[in-house]
Design goal:
With about 325 residues, the protein is α+β, with helices and mostly antiparallel strands. It is about 35% helix and about 10% strand.
Length: about 325
Amino acid sequence: MGHSCCRKQKVRRGLWSPEEDEKLINYITTYGHGSWSSVPKLAGLQRCGKSCRLRWINYLRPDLKKGSFSAQEEQIIIDVHRILGNRWAQIAKHLPGRTDNEVKNFWNSCIKKKLISQGLDPKTHNLIPSHQRASNKVAAGNMLQSQQQPFSIITVNLQMTDPSMEMNPPIITLPAAFSPNAIIQRPSSIQTSSVPILTSVDNQNPNILWTVNGRENSLDSSIFPCVSSIQNTPISPSVTPSWFGILDENCFWGHNTIAENFRAPRMDVLQAQGEENNQANEKVDVAEGVQDMDASFDSSSFGLEFVESTFLSSSTCGDLGSMDDLAWNF
DNA sequence: AAATACCCCAACCGCATGTGA
DNA sequence: TTCACATGCGGTTGGGGTATT
């Protein structure tokens, strides 16, 4: 089969020779790549444009970082992958000099195994239950620990204090005691895109605005002029979320202090479901929502900009000099 | 020393999306 | 609006190197 660009002429395949590399480097450094499809002809290469592009991006580019990944880079990959899943190109953007292919290979050859050896599911980053680790089987119908906990109802109450709300997203503060299985209600008047960040709760240190992966971000609340609040009815006050955000139009998601992801559907969604089911079934729906978290994580369509902003804020903690990294591009 | 298994990673493949005629 | 082509992305493959038997 081959690429459409390869059918027109005979093309070489396989590993690149030093001579081919030299030709490509000479051409691109002199003329730039312009249209990749015309590069091989102009550079005197019997390769397809796609192959040239890949070779340049993954290997020949002068700004590439050579050598093995540092521990810090590895941690960044793990952190971003936890949020974005297998979006290698997005992950690589957080690692200057690294390519998506390189990150992907490193993940598949090293990190994946490391996580598994630590008892973590490399897809979800959740702890693999011991019985699954032993048998590598998922018992149908089994519920995670977090799913078995009771849930409470939380109402997000945003107070718009700034007319430039859309440009300055609000902080949402959480009550000290907050159940990770809470149902969170967002006022329908608030668009998802305008609520990009939610703050965390730390019972021990109320001054911390939010934390990710146990790291603290001492962000100045003045950055986010809009103030809001959440009221809830805690049932499981011993567990507080370390962070959470918006998954999509229908639900929130987050991560709690017992290292379990949770997902909370919107109240109005639940109510719609409740018209068909009785109250008992509604609780099951919530549990299933949490269970679906793992499956939906990779393919979810929540705002990447938000996620990246959140990640950058966390990964650069202690290095928060550049607040540009925290820009909200909504 | 030879055969085999395993691992890493460069490169390829197919699909999705973007762009311009 | 449609079509063709270019580009970008993630999954997969296969060759070469290394470890093990």
